[in-house]
Amino acid sequence: FTLNNGHNLGILYCICYNYSEMEKLTNTILKCENLNKSFGKKKILKDVSFTIKKGDILGFIGPNGSGKTTTIKLILGLNSIDSGNVTINGFDIKKDFESAIKGVGAIVENPDMYMYLSGYENLKLVANMYNVSSSKIDEVVKLVKLEERIKDKVSKYSLGMRQRLGIAQALINSPNLLILDEPTNGLDPEGIKELRDLLKNLAKKENIAVLISSHNLAELDSFCNKVCIIQNGTIIESNEVKKLKKEVSNSTYIFEINNSTLVNNVIDNIKVLDSTHFSIKSKKEEIPNIITKLINNNILIYEVYENKISLEEAFLNKTGGNKID
Predict the structure, then answer these.
(1) How buried is 176 (Cβ within 10 angstroms: 0-12 exposed, 13-18 middle, 19+ buried)?
(2) Are 62 and 229 in contact (CB under 8 A)?
(3) What is the pTM assigned to this prediction?
(4) What are the tens digits of pLDDT across the range 8-24?
C-alpha cells in the first residue's frame, strides 16, 4: 500500500510503537513503583520498586526487619499503601483490587488447612470458593505430585507434603503470579528439594512468575534467576543472579600450578593463595596470554577456573556484611 502524506505515516508509527510497548507490558506480571509505608513515626519502606516477568523466579532477600514481609503484604492488599503503586497483570490494586488479585496465588508463612480432612477435601473447599471444577483439582494435584497421597488425611503428611498441598491451594484459581513468604521454614533437605523442583517446573512449563522470600540463600541460589535485595526499607540491588555474582566476583580467575612462588617473576598483580594456587583479576580474553607466559617459563598448569561466588557471598558484599538472621 501507499502512504500519501507524512501524517498517515506518523499515525502508522504510533500504532507500531504502542503495540511494541503493549508487548513489553503484557510480559510484566508484577510491577511495584515507589512503595512507601510507615507505621507511626517509623518508616518501613522507602520508594521500593521492582518488576517480575513471566517465568521469572525472583528471590526477595534482606536482613530481618528490612521490609520483605511488609512489601509482600502491600502487594497482596493486606496492608494499605502510603504512596506508590502496585500493578498486577496491568491492574492497579488500589483502583481495581479484584481484577489485580485474581491472578495471584500466595502463601504467607505456613499454609492453612484442616488436618482432619484429606488433601483432596482441603482442595475441594478452596475450589468451591472459586467455582472450580474437579478436573482443575486433579490438574494441580498432578503439578505438585501428590497423586498417590491426595486422599490421605493431612495429619499424615510430612511438612514438605503440606507445603506442596499449600501451593496446590494457591494454584487452584490458575494464577500467573505465585508469592511465597518463607516457604522452606521447617523443611528437611528432601522437602526443600521437592519445593525447588516444583517451582522450577511451574516457572518453566507453566510460565508462572514466582516471588519468593527466604533466609535460605543457598537454596535460592539453586533455582532463582533474579534477585532483589532490600536493606533498611530500600532496594539496593535488583538484578539477574548471574550478573550480580559476576559483578561482585570482579572477574577473578584461579590458577592451579606446580609452584606458585615462581609466578611473581612472570606475571604482575597476582595474589598467591597457597603453594600451588594464585588468583588474578583479568578479562577472559587475556587468560590465553597468561597461560602462554606460564608455559614459556616452564610452569606446569593443572587447572584454570573463574572464581564463582555464591549468592550469599554476593549478598554480604552488597549489604556490607549484614547477614540474614
Answers:
(1) middle
(2) yes
(3) 0.77
(4) 444 333 333 343 344 34
